[in-house]
Amino acid sequence: MLLRIPYTSPLPSFPPIPTTAATLPTAITAVSNFLLNARSTLILSGAGISVASGLPDYRGPKGTYTLNKEYRPIFYGDFVHKDAMRRRYWARSFLGWKGLERVRPNKTHIAVGRLWEGGWIGGAITQNVDSLHTMSRPDMPITNLHGLLSTVLCLTCRTHSERSPFQKELHRLNPTWSEFLEKLHSTPDMPIKRGPDGDIEVPGVQYESFRYPPCQTCLNNSTFDRMIRVDKDGAMERIEGDGNVPGIVKPTLVFFGENLRDEVKKEAEEKVDAADSILVIGSSLATYSAWRLVKRAKDQGKKVGIINLGGVRGEDAFWDDGEGKVAAKYKLGDGTDGVRVEFDAGDVLEGVLEVLERIDGKRANRKVPLDNSGTSRQDIELREIEIATAR
Ligand SMILES: [Zn+2]
Question: What start and end residues bound the annotated signal peptide (predicted)?
Answer without folding.
Answer: none
